[in-house]
UniProtKB/TrEMBL annotation, chains A, B:
It comes from the Bacteria. Residues 1-81 form the GST N-terminal domain. Gene3D superfamilies: 1.20.1050.10, Glutaredoxin (3.40.30.10). Pfam families: GST_C_2 (PF13410), GST_N_2 (PF13409). Residues 83-196 form the GST C-terminal domain. InterPro entries: Glutathione-S-Trfase_C-like, Glutathione-S-Trfase_C_sf, Glutathione_S-Trfase, Glutathione_S-Trfase_N, Thioredoxin-like_sf. This is Glutathione S-transferase. It comes from Leptospira haakeii.
Length: 196, 196
């Protein structure tokens, strides 16, 4: 299978990380959003939403949305256990990631680290909401080792992608000790690969 | 089971609609975000994210995030067919809904219809992005009757919730004929219930 992705993107890194953890071979096709490569006519035929990551199956079919791709790859593996309530909680945290976490933590990292827009007026409001997300995660980890399941699942991979580089968007994890420990637990999973 | 929800919320309506389509009995506990009822100490113990809808199982356990609740209710039913690629496409559209649709279409409806904030500076930017989402959906429907599957699934229920009332946020569907036809197809599903 092929993965179209921007290497520095956390959403794209989710797919790379899970493919390595599952030892699935793949071809990475660097597609840089910063160069407009997801908005070309050719790419829009593959994904009309104009975003990466995008998975191309050997059949030629395409699948988009990072967390839907994680589901596709993880179903029937240890990263998506076969229990309805656990599966639903895993998805709960993945929808939390896309609605209440990524739009603030990933976007501020993007503006500050990759767009050199440290004075963008959106940053301050995003910062407050990003802190809310990190606090909710940190509180959850006071009684749980992982998100959604008792062992690492695709919700952890989803949340790890932007949380472990949150400092690049000026969200230091030093005030969230449970999150810092969880980041280390994820790094210890066999076959872990870093984003950079 | 119990559903905590704000009746006028599309996210909450998703759950009500699916429960009716599946003929599952439930108790609705009106919990109005506009009155701060999702931010009380008592409610935050049930859902630390402070949002509705929230599902309470007979076991006393809670599940949040509208689309995760749809998955929990629909798995092993006709609204989530047992085919990995179809399931993944259904989730793809549901993540699209939460990331690229709801934050613009639902938020403008909320500001205009329920908060009387017609001059909020966010509305204009949201409007352009909401139109993008509706255009992508309308284009998809030029070759498909539904989203994710060849028959109605939870991705349709998810996308229907705010699309069919998009006009309340000043997104008329008149320019999207495929969307208008799809809205009618959803309304024809047996046991359909309206939002109001």
């Amino acid at each position: 299978m092929k993965v179209y992705g921007t290497s520095v993107s956390g959403n794209c890194y989710k797919i790379k990380l899970l493919l390595h953890l599952l030892k699935i071979p793949y071809e990475w096709i660097e597609t840089d959003t910063r160069k407009g490569e997801t908005k070309t006519q050719e790419f829009l035929l593959k994904n009309p939403v104009g975003k990466v990551p995008l998975l191309e199956l050997d059949s030629g079919e395409f699948l988009s949305e990072s967390n839907a791709i994680l589901y596709f790859l993880a179903k029937d593996t240890e990263f998506f256990p076969n229990d309805l309530l656990i599966q639903s909680r895993i998805l709960q945290w993945m929808f939390f990631e896309q609605y209440s976490h990524e739009p603030y933590i990933a976007v501020n990292r993007w503006l500050i680290q990759f767009q050199n827009k440290k004075d963008d007026p959106k940053i301050q409001g995003n910062h407050a909401k990003g802190l809310d997300a990190l606090r909710i995660m940190n509180d959850h980890l006071s009684a749980n080792k992982f998100f959604g399941s008792q062992r690492p699942s695709i919700s952890d991979i989803s949340l790890f992608a932007y949380t472990h580089v949150a400092e690049e968007g000026h969200f230091p994890l030093s005030g969230f000790p449970n999150l810092s420990s969880w980041v280390e637990r994820i790094r210890e999973i066999p076959d872990f690969v870093p984003i950079y």
